[in-house]
Amino acid sequence: MDMYSFWRTLDRATLRDIGLVCVADALVGAAFGAIAVSGGLPLWVPMAMSLLVFAGGAQFAAVAVTLAGGGAVAAVTAALVLNARLLPFGFAVADVLGRGRAARLAGAHVITDESVAFVLRQPDQRRRRAAFWVSGVGLFAVWNLAVALGALAGQGIGDTDALGLDAAFPAVLLALVVPALKDRRTRTAALSGAAVAVAATPFLPAGLPVLLALAGLPFAARRRPATGADGSTHSDGPDAAASRTGREGEDG
Amino acid sequence: MSLLAIVVLAAGTYAFRIAGPLLRDRIRLPERLERLLSIAAVVLLVALVVTSALTEGGGFAGWARPAGVLVAAVLALRRAPFPVIVVAAAATTALLRLAGLP
Q: What ipTM does this complex have?
């Protein structure tokens, strides 16, 4: 099947949702390009990252660590830990990429939080495939175009702080992560990790405090009975992952 | 950010993505590993949010930025559309700076 038949396979509501997520990602991509370039990185850096890495959260993370003065190893490590979640996503959508070698190799590159979320919402295999390819290819095009435009604009913006763009970056990540914080153990792990990271920031080189936050992970791994200490029932299901894929609509 | 760093990051990211489509017929991912990976991503994201909202160059970033992020948090909890959250955070911070708050 070609892109046109994929397009015709999907209903209007799905196409509209894909369009809305494309608009949101365009905003985020433009902010990413502008922040990176106005922070002092060369024009090609955000553009090459967007083409080759194509993962919004990880791109923001790597650039944030770099602009804060962190080394390349810290920047790449933080971004790769973030992208490790793509591993289970790849297993989840493997059957919709198609059987051909080229389709699998190309399709893998457009596996994102968004394209996986769109796949999981479709009722049958034909529409799952169509949703994957339309959202994946669409987001790839929109994201790269927006980053390039943002980067070009960033050259002209003298002071991104005056526009509040430095608040846009944590706001982006926060919007992505809020649904996952409903899970109590995930929340405990995340908040203790963040406390460690902030406490360590004045003393460690940039980039390391964020990695130190992973020390919060044992709080999530601890086995607990289904009924929590506070008496509330607590399902141990894949709620963190499910709510993430459900709402994490904007991580290009 | 050198070209080498970007290529290493891109290669690692692609490896995470292609593993499932290539290996799906042969291995299954343990459920515990899946859960650990998704929680690790959340832990890292929250740490990035908090440190980038509060700190700048190892010190306090000033009040305008965390205030903007706080607005984003409230909007995110109320399930506001994503573009609204981002624009509101930036606008809050920009206006507070315009008013003279660092």
A: 0.84
CA–CA gap between residue A77 and residue B42 (Å, rounded)? 15
A154 in a domain, yes or no? yes
C-alpha span between A32 and A252 (Å, rounded): 11
How many beta carbons lie within 10 A of that of residue B28, not counting itself? 8
Domain of residue A96: give its range. 3-247
**pTM listed for this prediction:** 0.75
Q: Name the A residues in 120-159 with CB < 8 Å from any B CB.
A: none
Query: pLDDT, tens digit, for every residue of A217-228?
Result: 888 765 544 443
Q: Is residue A108 a part of any domain in this protein?
A: yes
More confident: A195 or A99:
A195
Residue B48 has pLDDT above 60, yes or no: yes
Query: Cβ–Cβ of A170/B53 closer than 8 Å?
Result: yes
A76, A159, A203: best mutation site toward chain B, by most B Cβ within 10 Å? A76
Residue at A166 is within a domain: yes
Number of domains composing chain A: 1
Residue type at A114? E
